[in-house]
């Protein structure tokens, strides 16, 4: 359930379906557009700071995975969150490559909304396994992922020391999608 005003765009033509009417600042969950890229970069840097994606990589991720790149648009030119899932050309698995909600909007169900929508899209596309990496101390994200059914991928409880380089440990989590 969402405690915030939220609109969704569920189809590829970006027609908006209002879920919760709100006069002030309704958020729209929609597919990212090319014109979002500067704001996406700003948002990514605001949230992830030194581990934000370089601009050129964000651009290429958009080019590759546009349909599974979803944003929360507040209607004022600002994005308040995004999720990005990458799929393989061959195979039925996917990786979540990014998820965030701006600090001022957390704990209102938006992270869950982003994940639920992208998982629905992946399921519709025939994806069977979704993986992600999470910093082992990031309990907010781990609780969210566990709630959605993700579990550590063995061995070692999913822990992968130095996964992103020295000292950058990660846990790998996995979800098998029902079909
Ligand atoms: C992780 C993140 C996306 C969660 O977004 P959010 O909109 O605040 O999450 P939601 O409100 O949808 O919370 C869903 C569930 O996640 C868990 N959760 C989220 N934040 C939590 C927190 N601070 N403490 C404990 N549990 C938390 C809870 O189980 C919650 O369910 P509940 O509200 O019914 O208790 C957000 O905290 C964020 O952007 N963090 C910084 C970026 C990041 O770490 N991204 C993930 C990288 S792997």
Short description:
The chain is of the alpha+beta class and 179 residues long. The chain has four helices and ten strands; from the N terminus they run βββααβββαβαβββ.
Number of helices: 4
The distinct bound ligands, ions and cofactors come out as: coenzyme A
Q: What low-confidence regions span 5 or more consecutive residues with pLDDT below 50? A: 1-5, 7-24
Mean pLDDT: 89
State the separation between the terminal residues, measured CA to CA.
Answer: 23 Å
CATH architecture level-2 label of the largest domain: 3-Layer(aba) Sandwich
**How many distinct beta strands?**
10
Strand proportion: 25-35%
Structure overview:
The chain has 179 residues and is of the alpha+beta class. It folds into 2 domains: 1-107, Gcn5-related N-acetyltransferase (GNAT) (Aminopeptidase); 128-179, no CATH class. Helix content is 26%, strand content 28%. It has helices at 37-48, 55-65, 110-124, 139-147, and strands at residues 6-8, 17-18, 27-31, 69-73, 79-87, 93-101, 129-134, 151-152, 159-160, 170-176. Strands 1, 2, 3, 4, 5, 6, 7, 8, 9 and 10 form a 10-stranded mixed β-sheet that branches. Helix 1 (37-48) crosses helix 2. It is globular and about 45 Å long. The two termini are 23 Å apart. The model is unreliable at 1-5 and 7-24 (pLDDT under 50). Bound molecules: coenzyme A (COA). Residues 1-15 have a biased composition (Basic and acidic residues). One of its GO terms (molecular function) is acyltransferase activity, transferring groups other than amino-acyl groups. Residues 27-178 form the N-acetyltransferase domain.
């Amino acid at each position: 359930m969402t405690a915030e005003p939220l609109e969704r765009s569920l189809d590829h033509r970006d027609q908006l379906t209002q879920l919760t009417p709100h006069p002030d600042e309704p958020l729209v969950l929609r597919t990212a557009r090319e014109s979002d890229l500067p704001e996406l970069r700003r948002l990514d840097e605001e949230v992830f700071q030194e581990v934000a994606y370089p601009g050129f990589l964000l651009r290429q991720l958009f080019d590759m995975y546009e349909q599974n790149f979803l944003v929360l648009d507040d209607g004022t030119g600002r994005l308040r969150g995004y999720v990005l899932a990458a799929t393989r050309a061959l195979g039925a698995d996917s990786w979540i490559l990014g998820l965030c909600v701006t600090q001022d909007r957390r704990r209102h169900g938006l992270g869950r909304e982003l994940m639920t929508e992208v998982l629905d899209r992946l399921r519709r596309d025939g994806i069977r396994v979704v993986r992600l990496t999470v910093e082992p101390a990031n309990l907010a994200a781990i609780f969210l992922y566990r709630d959605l059914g993700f579990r550590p991928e063995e061995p070692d409880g999913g822990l992968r020391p130095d996964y992103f380089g020295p000292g950058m440990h990660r846990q790998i989590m996995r979800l098998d999608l029902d079909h």
